[in-house]
Amino acid sequence: MGIIKRFINKCLSLLRLGSEWLNKLTCSIIEVGRTESYIETVSPSQTDTIHKAIKNIDAQTIAHEFESIVRWALPLLGLKWKHVKLGIDVTEDPTWTEFGAQNVRPSTHKGMHHIQTWQYLNISIIEPFFVPLMSVPYRQTDDLDTLTIDLLKYAKTLPLIIDLVLFDRGFYHAHLIDFMENRRGKKPTPYLVFVKKTDAVKEYIYQTDYFDWFEHTMEYSKDKSKWHPKTTLVIWKPDPIVHPDVAWPFATNQKPTQELMDVYPKRWGHESEFRVHDEGHIKSKSSHPLIRFFYHLLGMVLIILWRIQSIRKEHVVFKRYLKFVERKYSELVIFPDPPPPIISY
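Above: the chain's sequence. Below: its structure in token form.
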């Protein structure tokens, strides 16, 4: 059984409907991703069945089956116990539904705050190459630090050697920094965070001519107590003569060097690679959060399989790979639906 078909069946137990039925469904889902259409349009006769099955499971089941594919794929990608750099970021799936409630959030993109989006917090390998490791829903009621910490704990269970985790400025929070510093456990998570220019950071920038670093104490409240984690703030002015007002502030627990700062632009590859994921976006008209989450992770399964294809066989563009997989599954459909009758007038 193919990996895509196995993922669908492991999550939803649809093989009971017959292998032919499941082959046709898999083919239709891949066609939806390739053509950026809607599952309700491409396969209306099967949509109600699969959506009913998704509603009868939970997000943990879907995430568990995705994790099993990640663990299966890492050795095939040559990444088992290899040094990697990770990126954590939020991805958006715009929606115009009126019934998302607390499950959707306003878009963070400039000029698009009026648009509601399904958002997912994602952790991925960004070096030596992009591989998605997990996504979790990020709702209005969720705490970003808690979700991020859970993803970091998950990543540490994978057979990887984590050299560095890269974050954008939206993750510069005392609670998260405290977890990654882990001064009591003496097992810190190596991190590099782009920092917001608060008043304290601006003071450090003012004191820096070109490249300097400072020990900075943060504060947050938890369990009716105040905590004061420490981090190293690194200030880098890449061109202090021509552009003296341009300064890049970072927080890290690594040795502050300019070479470390040069690593940060690799995080932007996380965003660009998720544009590839968008090219295989499996759309649905449903406003049910589990249905959207299932299709989101299924799209990431396609990315992982495409990576395996590119490394172990030959590289093809993502759209062409989807066409190839769609054709393979269509060949397994021995008894397709008959064409609709022709009505003569």
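Residues 289-312 form the longest helix (24 residues).
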